[in-house]
Structures are given as structure tokens and as C-alpha cells.
Amino acid sequence: MAWGDELAKWRHAETTWANLLMGLRLGVRPRVCITTTPRPIGLLMELMKDPTTRVTRGSTFDNRANLSPTFLRQMAERYGGTRLGRQELEAEILEDLPGALWRRETLDRARVRRAPDLERLVVAIDPPVTSGSAADACGIVLAGRAADGHAYVLADCTLEGATPLAWARHAVTLYSLHRADRIVAEVNNGGELIELLIRQVDPQASFRALRARRGKVVRAEPVAALYERGLVHHVGAMTQLEDQLCGFVSGRGWTGPGSPDRADALVWALTDLMLEDGGEPRLRPI
Description:
This protein has helices at residues 13-22, 42-49, 69-79, 83-88, 104-109, 164-177, 192-201, 216-228, 239-245, 261-276; strands at residues 2-5, 32-35, 111-112, 118-126, 139-146, 151-156, 182-186, 207-210, 232-235, 248-249, 253-254. By secondary structure, it is an alpha/beta fold.
């Protein structure tokens, strides 16, 4: 029997593994126990797919009885929800899809603890067509732009299973609480009813209707480019939103389950803040 620790950190993993197996040529049932942080290296992924492999997972917090409460609190505050935290603390293997518009490493580089003073602030809504437990979530994202031209995603406030009036109230509450400049929403599926819902809650709210004229990936590509240029930052970790962002693949579209409501709301927010700033120019006949 052999025990290998931190396989994902081995400098020459493939060669070392091959030599290790040569030392297990005796006995009826040679076995290897591997304990490691689950980084998505090729050797580890192959071993996990092998039908003779038995996989056991455990998070850092499963071992809380043997760890310092101060250490656990600091790890949760500093790394909770981040790629590093999900890998090192929660024992998740996080892979970037080939051709993904957003990479987890890029999102982690974009993460900050707090935002500076913001010149503009918007609440963006990607409304579902229906309501109830089986319906798509209502994507709601709060984001702003600072004087240096950088955007800051402040919160993913998405609601699941909410009625139209409930998510409209939620969006208006965020708008009022944070003194946002505008509520923006996609109106492809709801038309004028989306604005009527917002007006029913707050007749004075500043509202801008956005209509999708292109596919999700085409709309998302210029927003993803803002991340690559270092112009967008996430204030803290937003696990579900970031998982959806990493599910957009160039040439394939959205690859995840259901609808990417959170990511769509983020795209609308950053489009308004960084790419259009008030909308496209229009010609009015006189």
C-alpha cells in the first residue's frame, strides 16, 4: 500500500505516479491512498474517472473540532465563496470550460473588499416570464461606476420563486436603500408590464427599458472584455453569479442548467454603466 499526499502539488505528477505504481506489484490487492487539495490537473481528473477509484470529500469545516475557531473565522471571511476558498476549504474541483468568456482566475483578480465612492449606481433586473417554484429566478444585480471609469458589482440580489410584484418591490427597495440612479430591466418578455410593475411600487423611480436584439453570448462578450481589461471588480464573493458567468462559452452559448438570470442581470447593469451610458442615440423625425 502507498499513501501520496498533495498529489495536485507534485512537481512531476505523471512521472512520480508511474514510478509509484511500479512499486505496487506484489500482493492480491495493492492499494493507494491519495489525500490532496482537488486542483483540476490531468492526473487527478483521470484517477477520479477510474471505476476502481473511491472518492471521499471533506471540507475544512468538517474538521472544525480540531481547528482554531479564530482560524476558521478568518478563512471564512477572507476566502469564503472565492475560487481559492472553494478549492482549499470546500474540496471542490473548479474547471474552466474551453472558450469560456469568464475565467475564475480573472474573477478572483477582479475581487476587492470594498468599493470607492461611486458616481453612478444602477439596479439591473432580468425578469422571469412566470413565477413559482418551477420558474426561472429573477436576476437582480446592484452595480456602480466610479470616477476612474471602473465598475464595481456590489451585490447579487437575485430572487427565486418570487411573484412579479415581489421582485418589483425588492428591486425598488434596493433602488431606494442605496440611492441608485436608475433601475434597468430587460423587457423582451414583459414589455410595458415591467415598467408598470415598477411604477406601481414607486411612480417616481427612474427606469430604463432594455431590449435584447442579440443573443446572450454576443451581449456578454463586450462585458467579459471589460473584465479582461481590469475595468470591473466584484466586491466580495458572489458564488452563484460567478458560476453562471463561467458557463458562457464563445461559439456554444450558455452551457449551464436553466437560465443564467444572475449573469444576464449583470450584463444589463454593466452595459448601461460602461457601454451605453444612457442608451443608443435615436433619430426623431420633425
